């Protein structure tokens, strides 16, 4: 069956957007907000998580994969963004409306779409789906590519960087929403920092708890959490909080301390006035996973199932933009190789 509740309203939102080949298009942030891209052949719909294109982090990384596919593969894209607090039906409707608009290859960005992808994929067996950050049975299907990452491994490296650079032996972690996925970031960060300095102090703060996902899009909450850590003595704070990370950078700038970005190389994407406080970023190559999915469909090599992008596969890494880790790069690369070689096994859940 198709999911049609609220379809008329959503269809209006999807059809109201013009087509453009520009990679800078952005959704309205509402369930019907979408943008189209010109091109021929394959048509790809992208359903963003809360924050949408322009969050300078997770969603923008996914958008970069779609933009590359538009440029290199000539695909046509349409985009729609989630809003905080929306119902499960709204996510299902968003996916179905992309399909009904002719975008029969769909990327769902974020684990919040797990159940919606599973249900809509089962109802549309001829449509190819990809979901980022979920490998659960909820989203599994013969037409679903589950794209996941070893966030713990990349976070280990930036945790080591934080400990190597901290003069106070006191660092922090701000998580957007307290879920098992974000705990992977925390676990890796903690393990990397303690590999360098077993006695380092690590503050941890989650901005919201499920089902409240506003922790990924609340700059004020991110700023307040980081301010508290800096005032308490931390001198490096890592965020895994999506759009809320902008507040962490603002707090770092005001305190004269350092911050660590996530998902994208945020020393390139954050506002210019805060880039100088970004020590490094844990790069999660969502763009690669999205592009690989689209290319596999175009090439006829699509395979369902969970595809894991880890350090060995080049799916996660740390950024060097700004030169702030140049003096410790050899140490970070040694940790990186030990993880790849299996000499270091990075935990996926926090120690405490």
Automatic annotation (TrEMBL):
Domain ABC transporter substrate-binding protein PnrA-like: 44-348
UniProt keyword terms in alphabetical order: Cell membrane, Lipoprotein, Membrane, Signal
UniProt KW Translocase keyword: no
Name of a matching Pfam family: Bmp
Main location: membrane
Membrane association type: Lipid-anchor
Any one annotated GO CC term: plasma membrane
Signal sequence range: 1-22
Gene3D superfamilies in UniProt: 3.40.50.2300
Subcellular location: Cell membrane
PANTHER family, per database record: ABC TRANSPORTER GUANOSINE-BINDING PROTEIN NUPN, TRANSCRIPTIONAL ACTIVATOR PROTEIN MED
Record-stated family: Belongs to the BMP lipoprotein family.
Protein name: Basic membrane protein A
